[in-house]
Design brief:
Strands 6, 7, 8, 9, 10, 11 and 12 form a seven-stranded mixed β-sheet that branches. The longest helix is centred in the last third of the chain and has 25 residues. By secondary structure, the chain is α/β, with parallel strands linked by helices. One of its GO terms (molecular function) is ATP binding.
Length: about 425
């Protein structure tokens, strides 16, 4: 739950307490809140505008993402972060279905460097390096064998015990293992693969043999990374060497190792993939807290851009939609003749908690500022008037370009209402029957 939804839920609970003290039953309060939430969301639909989503003109989307990131810890480089978020969504978005597959966007972080070093990789970043230090650090036109079977001799499934009692027995065992390793490597080489990515590990002998046969390899790659690599490169995950064929190989323009300054830390970057829609946001930061906070911030921006792709209707922020919705709910309460009208009025008052908090946090007089903006919204019939937090000299949020997606704004109201109604149901269970009026 985000901060605005939490604030609204708190204000609704505060109003509920007052109504309960006046003897109004929790069910009546809950019903009134539901009616008010419906009126508020309908008002948001009316005052919303269409936002142009154009691949050729990304600046409006970047401005939208910057609005999201403006109050976050990344705000000193928030234009760069906004551009990364927009480019990531645009790379994976399906505009025909109006959907964004978040599975194709991986957010990876690494401590070290600075926030400005954060970049978008059109491919996959894996927190691994080549299994042998002498293996090539760059593989061009990579044909990747993606394996979930280890480079190990087959073992019986049941419990087994092997006694080696002589040098000859040991030599036979060693020859058997070498023969199996060579057979596995040959199967991979015959398919035309020039890089192996394996979910499991392999011992030094297998690793040395892979180096001798000029077959670079990466080991201990996790399951989710294996799946993402398969999606990105268009390859198939192969569980047995015998099933590996040329058609199942993944393809990438370049696979390279990234090294970080004077440290020994390395990561693998797979770029120019067969499926160019898979991307990775690689975040850098001075410490773990910065990296994790940047991840959360980027996720918020990604969600906003995804919402605008799904539904390109917007409202203007700065408390303007809450004030407009509050006025609409207050007006509707006058035509309700039942006891729910008290809950509807309370809902309208709770909606004002968001612009009040914005005014207070901006160093303005909360009550006077809110009263002035409400009055101007009614007189000028302009639902885009909000709190001028940045002191730009205008309360018109459309002019200030403060944008919020309609989907997110409606979700905030509905989520807060749903939470409070659940709490009121608990109160209803505890309430005496004679409270119902």
């Amino acid at each position: 739950m985000d901060s605005e939804a939490t604030m609204l839920a708190g204000a609704l609970l505060e109003q509920s307490e007052k109504l309960l003290d006046r003897g109004i039953h929790p069910i009546r309060i809950s019903d009134g809140y539901e009616m008010a939430a419906k009126i508020a969301t309908e008002k948001l639909d009316k005052i919303s505008e269409t936002f142009a989503v154009d691949l050729k003109e990304k600046e409006p989307l970047v401005q939208l993402a910057m609005t999201t990131l403006g109050s976050k810890i990344v705000n000193r480089c928030h234009r760069q972060m906004a551009e990364i978020a927009v480019d990531a969504i645009m790379s994976v978005a399906d505009f025909d279905r109006k959907d964004v597959d978040f599975e194709l966007i991986k957010v990876e972080g690494k401590v070290g460097g600075k926030l400005e070093d954060t970049m978008l990789v059109k491919g996959v970043v894996v927190d691994k390096d080549m299994s042998h230090p002498q293996m090539p650090k760059v593989v061009k036109d990579a044909k990747i064998a993606i394996l979930t079977c280890p480079f190990e001799p087959p073992k019986p499934k049941t419990k087994h015990k092997l006694d080696v009692t002589s040098v000859e027995d040991y030599q036979k065992l060693r020859e058997y293992e070498k023969e199996k390793f060579e057979s596995m490597v040959q199967m991979v080489k015959e398919t035309g693969a020039n890089l192996v990515i394996c979910q499991w590990g392999f011992d030094d002998e297998a690793n040395h043999l892979l180096l001798q046969r000029e077959l670079p390899a990466v080991r201990w790659v996790g399951g989710p990374e294996i799946e993402l690599i398969a999606i990105a490169t268009g390859g198939r995950i192969v569980p047995r060497f015998e099933e590996l064929t040329q058609e199942k190989l993944g393809k990438a323009g370049i696979v390279r190792e990234l090294s970080f300054g004077t440290t020994r830390e390395r990561m693998l970057v797979i770029e120019d993939c067969h499926n160019s829609r898979a991307v990775t946001i690689f975040i850098r930061g001075g410490n773990k807290m910065i990296v994790e906070e940047a991840k959360r911030s980027i996720h918020d921006a990604l969600c906003v851009i995804r919402n605008i792709v799904r539904d390109n209707r917007i409202v203007y922020g700065g408390g303007a939609p809450e004030i407009a919705a509050s006025l609409a709910v207050q007006e509707a309460a006058e035509s309700i003749s039942t006891l729910e009208q008290y809950a509807v009025r309370s809902f309208a008052e709770a909606l004002e908690s968001v612009p009040l908090a914005l005014a207070e946090n901006s160093g303005l007089s909360p009550i006077h500022t809110l009263a002035e903006v409400k009055s101007r919204q009614v007189k000028e019939k302009n639902p885009f008037l909000g709190i001028d937090c940045l002191r730009k000299g205008t309360n018109d949020m459309k002019a200030q370009h403060v944008i919020e997606t309609l989907t997110a704004k409606k979700q905030q109201i509905l989520l807060a209402t749903q939470l409070v109604r659940m709490i009121l149901k608990i109160d209803d269970i505890r309430a005496p029957n004679d409270m119902y009026m």
